[in-house]
Design a protein that fits this description.
This protein is an all-alpha fold. It has 16 helices and two strands. InterPro entries: Mem_transp_PIN-like.
Length: about 350
C-alpha cells in the first residue's frame, strides 16, 4: 500500500477512533462537570487519590496476568533498558531545550520536560489502544520513570540530597508495589508453587498460585472491574483540572508555550527516532506495541508529581501551573496524532 492508503486505513481504524474519541470526549465531560460545579474541586482530588491507590495498581497487577514466552520477555527487558536510556539522555540534553532561560526557570522547565503524566494520561491511552500487553509494557517502562522522578526530580527541585524518607515513599507507593509484584509473578511463574485449576475455556490447567486469572478468577474479575475505572476516571480528573486555571493568562505565557511544544511534540519525536534507529540497528529491538507504548508515554503532558515538587519548593509556581495547563491542552490535541503516527509505522512494516 502507498502512504495515502496506509494513512486512510489508520485514521479509519475503529480502535484508533475509539481510543482518541473516548479520551477527548471524557476529558471534555470532566471539564463541563467542573465548570458547572457538578463536581467540586475536592471531588476531583478524590478521583485522583482513588486512581493512585486503587484503580491504577489494579490495572498494573492484572496486566501481568498472562503467559510468558521468550518474545514477550525479550520485549519487556529491552523496553526497560530503553526506559533508562531515554531518561538519562533527557537528563543530559533536556536543559539545552531551554538555553534562552536561566536559573530556576531553566531548571523547572528542564525537569518538567523529562517527566510526563504517564500514570493519568499515558497508561489509559495505551490500555485502550493495546490492551493488557500495552499496559504491561507501560508498567515496565514506568519503572525507570519512577526511579528518576523520585531521585533526580526531587533533588533538582528541592536542592536537597536524596533521603531515606523519599526512598520509602517511592517503594511504598501502591503502583510500585503492584507493578513489581505483577512483574515478579509474570517473570517467575514457572518457578512458583503450581495449582490445578480450570481456565476460561473449561480446560484443566496448571498455573502459578499467584496467576489469579486462572487460580482465583473471582478475585481477578474484582480487580479487573477496578482496573477498568482507570481510563474514565483519569480523563474526568484531567478535564476537571483544566477547568481550574484561566486559559487566557496561560496562553499569553511564552515560556509555557515553548515548553508545551517541546514536551508533547519534540520529545516524543526524538524518542521515536531514537528507538527506531536502535531497533533497525539491532540495539535492544522492540516490536510495534512496545515502541508505541514508549512514544505515547513520552508524549504526555506535565507530571502531577513533578509539578507538585516545583510548587512545594517554591520554584516558579505560576510558570509550572501554566505549563501543566497548556501541555495538557496541547497533549489532548497531539495524542491522536501520535497514535496515528505509530500506527502508520506499523503499516509500513517498520516494526512488527
Amino acid at each position: 500500500m502507498n502512504f495515502a492508503e496506509i494513512f486512510a486505513s489508520t485514521i479509519t481504524n475503529p480502535k484508533v477512533i475509539s481510543a482518541v474519541s473516548s479520551a477527548v470526549l471524557i476529558i471534555l465531560l470532566g471539564f463541563y462537570l467542573r465548570k458547572k460545579d457538578i463536581i467540586s474541586k475536592q471531588t476531583s482530588k478524590m478521583l485522583s487519590v482513588l486512581l493512585l491507590t486503587v484503580s491504577i495498581p489494579a490495572l498494573a497487577y492484572t496486566a501481568f496476568m498472562q503467559d510468558i514466552d521468550t518474545e514477550s520477555l525479550t520485549q519487556g527487558v529491552n523496553l526497560l533498558i530503553w526506559g533508562f536510556i531515554i531518561y538519562i539522555v533527557l537528563i543530559i540534553m533536556g536543559k539545552f531545550f531551554f538555553m534562552n532561560f536561566t536559573g530556576d526557570k531553566n531548571k523547572v522547565l528542564h525537569v518538567l520536560t523529562i517527566f510526563g503524566s504517564t500514570t493519568f494520561f499515558g497508561i489509559p491511552i495505551v490500555g485502550v489502544m493495546y490492551g493488557a500487553e500495552g499496559v504491561m509494557y507501560a508498567s515496565i517502562f514506568n519503572i525507570s520513570y519512577r526511579v528518576f522522578l523520585y531521585s533526580y526530580g526531587y533533588i533538582k527541585m528541592s536542592g536537597l540530597k536524596f533521603t531515606k524518607d523519599n526512598i520509602k515513599s517511592m517503594l511504598m507507593n501502591p503502583i510500585i508495589i503492584a507493578t513489581f509484584l505483577g512483574l515478579a509473578v509474570w517473570m517467575f511463574q514457572g518457578y512458583l508453587p503450581q495449582m490445578q485449576a480450570t481456565n476460561a475455556e473449561g480446560l484443566a490447567v496448571s498455573a502459578a498460585f499467584l496467576r489469579i486469572d486462572v487460580t482465583a478468577p473471582w478475585l481477578f474479575e474484582t480487580l479487573n472491574y477496578l482496573a477498568k475505572l482507570c481510563s474514565p476516571l483519569a480523563w474526568i480528573a484531567i478535564g476537571a483540572q483544566l477547568a481550574e486555571i484561566p486559559l487566557k493568562d496561560a496562553f499569553r505565557d511564552k515560556p509555557s508555550l515553548q515548553y508545551s511544544a517541546v514536551k508533547v511534540i519534540l520529545v516524543p519525536a526524538f524518542i521515536l527516532a531514537l528507538i527506531t534507529a536502535g531497533s533497525m540497528m539491532g540495539i535492544f529491538p522492540v516490536n510495534h506495541v512496545a515502541m508505541a507504548t514508549a512514544v505515547i508515554m513520552m508524549a504526555t503532558p506535565t507530571a502531577t508529581v513533578a509539578a507538585a515538587f516545583a510548587i512545594s519548593f517554591d520554584k516558579e509556581a505560576l510558570l509550572t501551573s501554566n505549563c501543566s495547563l497548556l501541555s495538557t491542552i496541547l497533549g489532548v490535541v497531539a495524542m491522536p496524532l501520535w497514535v496515528v503516527v505509530v500506527e502508520l509505522m506499523k503499516g509500513f512494516s517498520i516494526f512488527s
